[in-house]
Amino acid sequence: GSADIQCDMLVLGAGPGGYSAAFRAADLGMNTVLVERYATLGGVCLNVGCIPSKALLHVAAVIDETSHMEAMGIKFEKPSIDIDKLRAHKDKVISKMTGGLAGMAKGRKVNVVQGVGQFVGPNHLEVATADGGRKTIGFKQAIIAAGSSVVKLPFVPEDERIVDSTGALELRQVPKRMLVIGGGIIGLEMATVYSTLGARIDVVEMLDGLMQGADRDLVKVWQKFNEKRFDRIMTKTKTVGVEALPEGIKVTFESAEAGGTAPEPQLYDMVLVAVGRSPNGKKISADKAGVAVNERGFIPVDAQMRTNVPHIFAIGDLVGQPMLAHKAVHEAHVAAEAAAGQKSFFDARVIPSVAYTDPEVAWVGMTEDEAKAKGVKLEKGLFPWAASGRAVANGRDEGFTKLLFDAETHRIVGGGIVGTHAGDMIGEIALAIEMGADAVDIGKTIHPHPTLGESIGMAAEVFEGVCTDLP
Ligand code: FAD
Q: Any idea what DSSP says for residue 214?
């Protein structure tokens, strides 16, 4: 059929998946069109996700750090917080990053079309543009990177005191009392920010523990360190009612256990709903292109990120868990390279996860809890940060570094770190797993002293029985 724009490669959605795919496709010589409904590139991650949350978490970490320094003889005044200025800083961080992307798109001659895209055929996408017009884009190949949206709770009313992660990141005000529904990474990161800024916070989680997916021993350290940060952490507790009253948001709880007791209903000034994200697969008329979407809205793909339609690929939050930016970027490169005829496959052994809380919790590969559940026999090397000169010098020695090895080959299969800067260190363990390193390889690698990263080498030595002088 006729099209207003004709291209080799159409990319739908400009999040970390979409922009990475478009840039790689353009670099490989394809005439590329990138369709995005919002005015800025970067998707959830840059605009309302990873980056703004980290801008605020940095501020929280600095404030928290000062409070730990009284024990070192350094007492700071209570910080005065100019929330308008903080919000402006966060917005500036976003615009710097999204502006950088716009420049990179331009430099590569990627044609960015703003509007909402819907497939109208196997080689055509229709875009409803911001000015009310319509554009048809004809494509030879396509990469769908339409991402995910927040999951809503059906019984939660519309009220400006009730927000999702996007609303929380807007940072309109700091409430006195706040409830965070959902004890996952996103909820706990926002809880960290708001509590440091002065809110009293309750966290409610239906399951039996926070930060599902991470080993319980890591989470336990985080929880102990944060005992005073929160009024209460209610696990195994369901939120069953949310009412917007003039005096506050009234929330009702129920025990998730048969016969269990739940807390009394509570009044909050602000409620953050952070109960997960669901893929946007059903919102793009994928069926018009013949692309299969499963019941939950995910688009099934093969190891080259190809959908059931050979010239259409899908990547990122849209194709499955874990919904993380670094996974989306990696998949984007595979898809663009495969579309260019290269033999690229997604064969990453592991994808690291990080909660950028205080302390940070990071893990990669197999966890102990997972090994137990699967009956896999693992052995571990654990290095407590109380034995790390650097952690002690920092006054932050609550953490530990744990490496998990195959019981027979002693090759590393997983690892976890809880402590400050854990997220910055977990990449080394991911590399070791990808390289098939064993405990000796890691233990004999000279790490700089005194660093927190050194704890990875020490954990391997603990496992080898070389390092025994632990406190
Ligand atoms: P998205 O980023 O969701 O991008 C999809 C894009 O497609 C969007 O811009 C959307 O507007 C556009 N789009 C969708 N449908 C259409 C359509 N029909 N027409 C036009 N455009 C369309 N991940 C991490 O790895 N680290 C973190 O620290 C982290 N922190 C997070 C914090 C928060 C608060 C949230 C919400 C998420 C966080 N994530 C983090 C997750 C991360 O943001 C996502 O995994 C990542 O953005 C997924 O990238 P994507 O390209 O698949 O999709």
A: S
Q: What does the mean pLDDT of the chain come to?
A: 97
The percentage of residues in the chain with a pLDDT greater than 70, rounded to a whole number, is: 99
pLDDT above 70 (res 1):
no
Distance CA 218, CA 236 (A): 19
pTM of the model: 0.97
Q: What pLDDT score was predicted for residue 6?
A: 98
Q: Which of 38, 50, 116, 125 to mutate to test the pocket of ligand 1 (most atoms within 8 A of CB)?
A: 50
On the question of pLDDT at 105 being above 60, the answer is: yes
**CA pair distance 84, 135, nearest whole angstrom:** 39
Atom of ligand 1 nearest to the CA of 118: 18
| Distance from residue 280's CA to the centre of ligand 1 (Å) | 10
Pocket (CB within 6 angstroms of ligand 1) = 12-18, 35-38, 43-45, 49-50, 53, 116-117, 145-148, 165, 186, 280, 284, 316-318, 323-326, 328
Cα 22 to ligand 1 centroid, rounded to whole Å: 15
pLDDT digits (tens, 9 = 90+) for 223-282: 999 999 999 999 999 999 999 999 999 999 999 999 999 999 999 999 999 999 999 999
Return the structure tokens found at 97: 């990053």
pLDDT score recorded for residue 466: 86
Please confirm, yes or no, whether 449 is among the known catalytic residues: yes
Ligand 1 atom 41: the closest Cα is on which residue?
A: 324
Q: Tokens at residue 241, please?
A: 């009612």
CB atoms under 10 Å from CB of 55, counted, come to: 20
Predicted confidence (pLDDT) at residue 81 exceeds the cutoff of 90: yes
Counting ligand 1 atoms within 8 A of each CB, the residue from 45, 186, 284, 327 with the most, and so the one to mutate, is 45
Cα dihedral value 457, 463, 465, 469, nearest 10: 60
Confidence category of residue 471, pLDDT binned at 50, 70, 90: low
**What is the C-alpha R_g of the chain?**
24
Query: Which residue's CA is minimally distant from atom 29 of ligand 1?
Result: 50
Question: Distance between CA atoms of 459 and 69, rounded to whole angstroms?
Answer: 28
Helices (H), 13-82: 16-27, 43-48, 50-68
pLDDT of 406 strictly over 60 = yes
Q: Which of 89, 333, 447, 449 is catalytic?
A: 449
- In 3D space, the residue among 445, 381, 438 whose CA is nearest the CA of residue 408 turns out to be 438
